[in-house]
Amino acid sequence: MDFGALRIKLDERSVEADGKLLQLTKKEFDILVYLARNKNRVVTKDSIGGNLWGDYIDDKLSYDYIYAHVKNLRKKLADQGCEGFLKTVYGVGYKFSAR
Questions:
Q1: Running DSSP on this structure, what letter comes out for residue 89?
Q2: pTM of the shown model
Q3: Residues forming a β-bridge with 23
Q4: Nearest Cα to 72, choosing from 34, 27, 13?
Q5: pLDDT one-digit tens code per residue, 32-78
Q6: How many CB atoms lie within 10 A of CB 77?
Q7: What dotted CATH number matches 2-96?
Q8: Which alpha helices (DSSP H) does 1-99 contain, by range?
Q9: Domain locations in the chain?
Q10: How far apart are CA 36 and CA 59, in angstroms?
Q11: Cα–Cα distance between 63 and 21 in angstroms, integer?
Q12: Segment (H or E) for 21
């Protein structure tokens, strides 16, 4: 999956930002792939949680774990000059905006 300076290699489970390999956790990678597969569409926090944790997700839990992973993912992308791909849709979730 190529998005200009951002390249996601699904078969290798790796991500390159501006030609440099990013060190992502499993959850960060999974979130990025899920959002990229739904590019330019708003994805709810419930949808992200259900996709990543499946039956283990509890509706009563806070979304702090998602916020933390997205924050870390954004920082890693920004550090390599690939900011702006992940947009927050306040009160709903996130959107991957391909350039």
A1: E
A2: 0.87
A3: none
A4: 27
A5: 999 999 999 999 988 888 887 765 555 545 678 888 999 999 999 99
A6: 23
A7: 1.10.10.10
A8: 26-37, 45-53, 64-79
A9: 2-96
A10: 24
A11: 28
A12: strand 20-22
SS3 content of the chain, % helix, strand, coil (to 5): 40, 25, 35
User: Do residues 37 and 95 lie in contact, with contact meaning Cβ atoms separated by under 8 Å?
Assistant: no
- Reduced to 3 states (helix: H, G, I; strand: E, B; else coil), residue 95 is strand
pLDDT of res. 24? 94
| In the block, residue with structure tokens 């959107």 | 95
Q: What is the pLDDT of residue 99?
A: 60
Confidence of residue 31 (pLDDT cuts 50, 70, 90): very high
Q: With cut-offs at 50, 70 and 90, classify the pLDDT of residue 81.
A: confident
Angle between helices 64-79 and 45-53 (to 10 degrees): 90
72 class by beta-carbon count within 10 Å (0-12 exposed, 13-18 middle, 19+ buried): middle
Amino acid 38 reads N
pLDDT of residue 51: 82
